[in-house]
Amino acid sequence: MTEYDMVIIGGGPIGLYATFYAGLRDMRALVIDAQDELGGQLVTLYPEKVVYDVGGYPGILAYDLAQNLIEQAKMFSPDIRINEWADMIERTPDNMWIIKTDKGGAFKTKTILIAAGIGKIIPSRLNAKGEIEYENKGVYYTVRRKRDFEGKRILIVGGGDSAVDWALTLSPVAKSVTLIHRRDQFRAHERSVKQMFQVATVYTWHELKEVKGDGSKVTQAVIFDNRTKEEKTLDVDAVIISIGHKGDLGNMVKWGLNMKGRSITVNGKMETNLAGVYAAGDIVEQEGTPKLALIATGFAQAAIAVSVAKKYIDPNASVFAGHSSEMDNKFKK
Protein backbone atom coordinates (compact mmCIF):
# COMPACT_ATOMS: atom_id res chain seq x y z
CA MET A 1 0.00 0.00 0.00
CA THR A 2 1.38 3.40 -1.01
CA GLU A 3 2.01 5.70 1.96
CA TYR A 4 1.58 9.46 1.83
CA ASP A 5 2.57 12.33 4.04
CA MET A 6 -0.77 13.97 3.31
CA VAL A 7 -3.99 13.06 1.55
CA ILE A 8 -6.02 16.08 0.47
CA ILE A 9 -9.74 15.43 0.22
CA GLY A 10 -11.19 17.83 -2.33
CA GLY A 11 -9.81 19.06 -5.64
CA GLY A 12 -11.29 22.54 -5.66
CA PRO A 13 -9.21 25.71 -5.42
CA ILE A 14 -8.31 25.22 -1.75
CA GLY A 15 -7.44 21.55 -2.16
CA LEU A 16 -5.36 22.36 -5.23
CA TYR A 17 -3.43 25.09 -3.45
CA ALA A 18 -2.89 22.77 -0.48
CA THR A 19 -1.54 20.12 -2.87
CA PHE A 20 0.97 22.61 -4.24
CA TYR A 21 1.97 23.80 -0.79
CA ALA A 22 2.44 20.23 0.45
CA GLY A 23 4.82 19.66 -2.46
CA LEU A 24 6.65 22.85 -1.55
CA ARG A 25 7.17 21.38 1.91
CA ASP A 26 8.54 18.12 0.45
CA MET A 27 5.45 16.15 1.44
CA ARG A 28 4.26 13.29 -0.72
CA ALA A 29 0.65 14.12 -1.48
CA LEU A 30 -2.45 12.50 -2.90
CA VAL A 31 -5.56 14.48 -3.82
CA ILE A 32 -8.93 12.73 -4.02
CA ASP A 33 -11.94 14.43 -5.59
CA ALA A 34 -15.49 13.16 -6.08
CA GLN A 35 -16.15 15.26 -9.21
CA ASP A 36 -15.20 14.13 -12.71
CA GLU A 37 -12.62 16.92 -13.07
CA LEU A 38 -10.51 19.08 -10.79
CA GLY A 39 -11.45 22.67 -10.03
CA GLY A 40 -14.45 22.37 -7.72
CA GLN A 41 -17.07 25.09 -7.88
CA LEU A 42 -14.90 27.10 -10.28
CA VAL A 43 -15.57 24.61 -13.08
CA THR A 44 -18.81 23.02 -11.92
CA LEU A 45 -20.89 26.06 -11.02
CA TYR A 46 -19.51 29.20 -12.68
CA PRO A 47 -16.63 28.52 -15.10
CA GLU A 48 -17.55 31.44 -17.39
CA LYS A 49 -17.91 34.01 -14.62
CA VAL A 50 -15.17 36.45 -13.68
CA VAL A 51 -13.56 36.10 -10.24
CA TYR A 52 -12.43 39.43 -8.78
CA ASP A 53 -11.38 38.61 -5.22
CA VAL A 54 -8.17 36.64 -5.76
CA GLY A 55 -4.96 38.56 -5.19
CA GLY A 56 -2.93 39.33 -8.31
CA TYR A 57 -5.90 39.14 -10.67
CA PRO A 58 -8.00 42.27 -11.29
CA GLY A 59 -10.39 39.80 -12.86
CA ILE A 60 -10.01 36.25 -14.17
CA LEU A 61 -12.43 33.69 -15.59
CA ALA A 62 -13.18 31.03 -13.00
CA TYR A 63 -12.28 28.29 -15.48
CA ASP A 64 -8.91 29.91 -16.22
CA LEU A 65 -8.20 30.31 -12.52
CA ALA A 66 -8.95 26.62 -12.03
CA GLN A 67 -6.56 25.64 -14.82
CA ASN A 68 -3.82 27.79 -13.28
CA LEU A 69 -4.38 26.16 -9.91
CA ILE A 70 -4.30 22.69 -11.45
CA GLU A 71 -1.02 23.48 -13.19
CA GLN A 72 0.41 24.81 -9.93
CA ALA A 73 -0.82 21.79 -7.95
CA LYS A 74 0.93 19.41 -10.37
CA MET A 75 4.33 21.10 -10.01
CA PHE A 76 5.59 18.53 -7.49
CA SER A 77 3.93 15.49 -9.15
CA PRO A 78 1.25 14.55 -6.62
CA ASP A 79 -0.96 11.54 -7.15
CA ILE A 80 -4.47 12.48 -8.25
CA ARG A 81 -7.69 10.48 -8.20
CA ILE A 82 -10.90 12.02 -9.55
CA ASN A 83 -14.47 10.76 -9.70
CA GLU A 84 -13.78 8.91 -6.44
CA TRP A 85 -15.30 9.44 -2.99
CA ALA A 86 -13.25 9.46 0.18
CA ASP A 87 -15.75 7.21 1.90
CA MET A 88 -14.37 6.29 5.34
CA ILE A 89 -11.24 6.89 7.42
CA GLU A 90 -9.79 4.74 10.17
CA ARG A 91 -6.86 5.05 12.56
CA THR A 92 -4.06 2.48 12.33
CA PRO A 93 -2.07 0.99 15.26
CA ASP A 94 1.00 3.02 14.16
CA ASN A 95 -0.96 6.30 14.43
CA MET A 96 -1.50 6.77 10.72
CA TRP A 97 -4.73 6.91 8.77
CA ILE A 98 -6.31 4.68 6.14
CA ILE A 99 -8.66 6.38 3.70
CA LYS A 100 -11.06 4.04 1.95
CA THR A 101 -12.88 5.12 -1.21
CA ASP A 102 -16.06 4.09 -2.96
CA LYS A 103 -13.94 2.57 -5.74
CA GLY A 104 -12.28 0.10 -3.37
CA GLY A 105 -9.14 2.16 -2.92
CA ALA A 106 -7.26 2.23 0.38
CA PHE A 107 -4.54 4.79 1.03
CA LYS A 108 -2.32 5.10 4.08
CA THR A 109 -1.27 8.56 5.17
CA LYS A 110 0.34 10.39 8.06
CA THR A 111 -2.04 13.34 7.80
CA ILE A 112 -5.31 14.30 6.14
CA LEU A 113 -6.45 17.73 4.94
CA ILE A 114 -10.16 18.05 4.27
CA ALA A 115 -10.85 20.75 1.67
CA ALA A 116 -14.16 19.43 0.43
CA GLY A 117 -15.96 22.77 0.11
CA ILE A 118 -19.69 22.06 0.14
CA GLY A 119 -19.08 18.42 -0.78
CA LYS A 120 -19.78 16.71 -4.08
CA ILE A 121 -21.79 19.16 -6.15
CA ILE A 122 -25.08 17.68 -7.33
CA PRO A 123 -27.47 19.73 -9.48
CA SER A 124 -31.09 20.15 -8.43
CA ARG A 125 -33.31 18.53 -11.04
CA LEU A 126 -36.91 19.19 -12.04
CA ASN A 127 -37.64 15.60 -13.09
CA ALA A 128 -39.55 16.88 -16.08
CA LYS A 129 -40.35 14.34 -18.78
CA GLY A 130 -37.31 13.83 -21.02
CA GLU A 131 -34.97 15.73 -18.70
CA ILE A 132 -32.80 12.79 -17.67
CA GLU A 133 -32.96 11.22 -21.15
CA TYR A 134 -31.38 14.32 -22.70
CA GLU A 135 -28.97 15.18 -19.92
CA ASN A 136 -25.71 16.31 -21.58
CA LYS A 137 -27.44 15.96 -24.97
CA GLY A 138 -28.98 19.39 -24.74
CA VAL A 139 -30.08 19.51 -21.11
CA TYR A 140 -27.52 21.12 -18.82
CA TYR A 141 -27.34 22.37 -15.27
CA THR A 142 -24.51 24.84 -15.76
CA VAL A 143 -22.53 26.44 -18.56
CA ARG A 144 -19.03 25.00 -18.77
CA ARG A 145 -17.95 26.83 -21.94
CA LYS A 146 -19.88 29.72 -23.44
CA ARG A 147 -18.76 28.87 -26.96
CA ASP A 148 -20.71 25.57 -26.77
CA PHE A 149 -23.92 27.61 -27.04
CA GLU A 150 -22.98 29.82 -29.99
CA GLY A 151 -25.83 30.16 -32.49
CA LYS A 152 -28.21 28.05 -30.43
CA ARG A 153 -31.78 28.60 -29.32
CA ILE A 154 -31.58 28.40 -25.55
CA LEU A 155 -34.22 27.93 -22.86
CA ILE A 156 -33.15 28.80 -19.31
CA VAL A 157 -35.21 27.63 -16.34
CA GLY A 158 -34.84 29.55 -13.08
CA GLY A 159 -35.16 32.90 -11.39
CA GLY A 160 -32.02 33.33 -9.32
CA ASP A 161 -28.74 35.13 -9.92
CA SER A 162 -27.26 32.24 -11.92
CA ALA A 163 -30.21 31.92 -14.28
CA VAL A 164 -30.33 35.65 -14.93
CA ASP A 165 -26.56 35.86 -15.33
CA TRP A 166 -26.56 33.04 -17.88
CA ALA A 167 -29.27 34.82 -19.87
CA LEU A 168 -27.12 37.95 -19.99
CA THR A 169 -23.89 36.07 -20.67
CA LEU A 170 -25.26 33.90 -23.48
CA SER A 171 -27.48 36.41 -25.27
CA PRO A 172 -24.58 37.94 -27.30
CA VAL A 173 -23.57 34.52 -28.72
CA ALA A 174 -26.85 32.60 -28.86
CA LYS A 175 -29.39 32.74 -31.67
CA SER A 176 -32.08 33.36 -29.04
CA VAL A 177 -32.50 33.16 -25.27
CA THR A 178 -35.77 32.43 -23.51
CA LEU A 179 -36.09 32.30 -19.73
CA ILE A 180 -38.98 30.90 -17.73
CA HIS A 181 -39.60 31.32 -14.01
CA ARG A 182 -42.37 29.85 -11.91
CA ARG A 183 -43.05 33.20 -10.21
CA ASP A 184 -42.91 36.85 -11.23
CA GLN A 185 -40.31 37.81 -8.61
CA PHE A 186 -36.61 37.15 -9.28
CA ARG A 187 -33.91 36.37 -6.71
CA ALA A 188 -31.33 38.39 -8.61
CA HIS A 189 -29.94 41.91 -8.72
CA GLU A 190 -32.58 44.36 -9.93
CA ARG A 191 -30.28 45.85 -12.56
CA SER A 192 -29.50 42.41 -13.99
CA VAL A 193 -33.19 41.53 -14.16
CA LYS A 194 -33.94 44.77 -16.01
CA GLN A 195 -31.13 44.05 -18.51
CA MET A 196 -32.39 40.48 -18.99
CA PHE A 197 -35.82 41.68 -20.13
CA GLN A 198 -34.04 43.68 -22.85
CA VAL A 199 -32.09 40.76 -24.31
CA ALA A 200 -34.23 37.67 -23.65
CA THR A 201 -37.81 36.51 -24.02
CA VAL A 202 -39.12 36.04 -20.49
CA TYR A 203 -42.14 34.04 -19.37
CA THR A 204 -43.06 34.42 -15.71
CA TRP A 205 -45.43 31.99 -13.99
CA HIS A 206 -44.17 29.30 -16.37
CA GLU A 207 -42.59 25.92 -15.73
CA LEU A 208 -40.96 23.18 -17.81
CA LYS A 209 -43.21 20.22 -18.56
CA GLU A 210 -41.24 18.19 -21.12
CA VAL A 211 -38.03 18.08 -23.13
CA LYS A 212 -38.32 16.57 -26.59
CA GLY A 213 -35.66 15.47 -29.06
CA ASP A 214 -34.66 13.08 -31.80
CA GLY A 215 -32.85 10.69 -29.49
CA SER A 216 -29.44 12.30 -29.85
CA LYS A 217 -30.21 15.96 -29.21
CA VAL A 218 -32.86 18.32 -27.87
CA THR A 219 -35.21 19.88 -30.41
CA GLN A 220 -38.17 21.22 -28.40
CA ALA A 221 -39.35 22.09 -24.91
CA VAL A 222 -42.93 22.16 -23.65
CA ILE A 223 -43.62 24.84 -21.04
CA PHE A 224 -46.86 25.71 -19.26
CA ASP A 225 -48.46 28.57 -17.38
CA ASN A 226 -48.85 27.30 -13.82
CA ARG A 227 -51.94 29.44 -13.31
CA THR A 228 -53.95 28.61 -16.45
CA LYS A 229 -52.17 25.33 -17.39
CA GLU A 230 -51.90 26.63 -20.97
CA GLU A 231 -48.97 24.99 -22.79
CA LYS A 232 -46.45 26.32 -25.32
CA THR A 233 -44.01 24.32 -27.42
CA LEU A 234 -40.70 26.05 -28.10
CA ASP A 235 -38.12 25.06 -30.68
CA VAL A 236 -34.85 24.92 -28.73
CA ASP A 237 -31.38 23.44 -29.04
CA ALA A 238 -30.45 23.59 -25.36
CA VAL A 239 -32.21 23.70 -22.01
CA ILE A 240 -30.27 25.05 -19.03
CA ILE A 241 -31.92 24.17 -15.72
CA SER A 242 -30.54 26.64 -13.21
CA ILE A 243 -32.46 26.02 -9.99
CA GLY A 244 -29.54 25.42 -7.64
CA HIS A 245 -27.10 22.75 -6.55
CA LYS A 246 -26.71 20.65 -3.44
CA GLY A 247 -23.54 19.60 -1.67
CA ASP A 248 -23.22 15.97 -0.61
CA LEU A 249 -20.70 15.21 2.14
CA GLY A 250 -21.22 11.46 1.87
CA ASN A 251 -20.16 9.57 5.00
CA MET A 252 -18.02 12.38 6.40
CA VAL A 253 -20.47 12.90 9.25
CA LYS A 254 -19.55 9.37 10.43
CA TRP A 255 -15.80 10.04 10.66
CA GLY A 256 -15.89 11.25 14.26
CA LEU A 257 -15.20 14.89 13.42
CA ASN A 258 -16.60 17.67 15.56
CA MET A 259 -19.04 19.49 13.30
CA LYS A 260 -21.48 22.38 13.45
CA GLY A 261 -24.13 21.55 10.92
CA ARG A 262 -22.24 20.95 7.68
CA SER A 263 -19.04 22.63 8.89
CA ILE A 264 -16.00 21.03 10.52
CA THR A 265 -14.81 22.90 13.59
CA VAL A 266 -11.10 23.72 13.66
CA ASN A 267 -8.80 25.77 15.88
CA GLY A 268 -6.38 28.48 14.82
CA LYS A 269 -3.96 25.84 13.50
CA MET A 270 -6.68 24.34 11.28
CA GLU A 271 -6.60 21.21 13.46
CA THR A 272 -9.75 19.15 13.89
CA ASN A 273 -10.45 17.09 16.98
CA LEU A 274 -8.75 14.09 15.27
CA ALA A 275 -4.96 13.94 15.55
CA GLY A 276 -3.29 14.54 12.19
CA VAL A 277 -6.53 15.62 10.50
CA TYR A 278 -6.90 19.22 9.32
CA ALA A 279 -9.51 21.14 7.36
CA ALA A 280 -9.57 24.35 5.30
CA GLY A 281 -11.87 26.36 3.08
CA ASP A 282 -15.64 26.60 2.90
CA ILE A 283 -16.10 23.44 4.95
CA VAL A 284 -14.56 24.83 8.14
CA GLU A 285 -15.88 26.77 11.10
CA GLN A 286 -12.79 28.27 12.73
CA GLU A 287 -12.95 29.09 16.42
CA GLY A 288 -12.99 32.83 17.14
CA THR A 289 -12.80 33.79 13.46
CA PRO A 290 -15.58 35.19 11.23
CA LYS A 291 -16.41 32.80 8.42
CA LEU A 292 -15.53 34.27 5.04
CA ALA A 293 -16.34 31.96 2.12
CA LEU A 294 -13.56 33.41 0.00
CA ILE A 295 -10.88 31.66 -2.03
CA ALA A 296 -8.29 34.05 -0.58
CA THR A 297 -9.22 33.02 2.97
CA GLY A 298 -9.06 29.35 2.03
CA PHE A 299 -5.58 29.72 0.53
CA ALA A 300 -4.27 31.07 3.84
CA GLN A 301 -6.00 28.29 5.78
CA ALA A 302 -4.49 25.67 3.48
CA ALA A 303 -0.98 27.05 3.94
CA ILE A 304 -1.41 27.04 7.73
CA ALA A 305 -2.80 23.49 7.74
CA VAL A 306 0.00 22.09 5.58
CA SER A 307 2.67 23.87 7.62
CA VAL A 308 1.27 22.61 10.93
CA ALA A 309 0.95 19.11 9.44
CA LYS A 310 4.61 19.23 8.39
CA LYS A 311 5.58 19.96 12.01
CA TYR A 312 3.27 17.14 13.17
CA ILE A 313 5.04 14.68 10.86
CA ASP A 314 8.54 15.94 11.64
CA PRO A 315 8.91 17.67 15.02
CA ASN A 316 12.28 19.01 13.88
CA ALA A 317 10.74 20.87 10.96
CA SER A 318 9.88 24.52 11.16
CA VAL A 319 6.25 25.54 10.80
CA PHE A 320 7.38 28.38 8.55
CA ALA A 321 9.97 27.19 6.05
CA GLY A 322 10.60 30.57 4.47
CA HIS A 323 9.31 32.42 1.44
CA SER A 324 8.91 30.60 -1.86
CA SER A 325 11.19 33.21 -3.46
CA GLU A 326 13.96 31.80 -1.29
CA MET A 327 13.35 28.24 -2.52
CA ASP A 328 14.44 28.48 -6.16
CA ASN A 329 16.01 25.02 -6.12
CA LYS A 330 12.61 23.43 -5.45
CA PHE A 331 11.16 24.94 -8.61
CA LYS A 332 14.15 23.97 -10.74
CA LYS A 333 13.87 20.24 -10.01
UniProtKB/TrEMBL annotation:
It is an enzyme of class 1 (oxidoreductase). It catalyses: 2 reduced [2Fe-2S]-[ferredoxin] + NADP(+) + H(+) = 2 oxidized [2Fe-2S]-[ferredoxin] + NADPH. It comes from Sulfolobus acidocaldarius. Residues 4-296 form the FAD/NAD(P)-binding domain. One of its GO terms (molecular function) is NADP binding. Belongs to the ferredoxin--NADP reductase type 2 family. Its cofactor is FAD. This is Ferredoxin--NADP reductase. Binds 1 FAD per subunit.
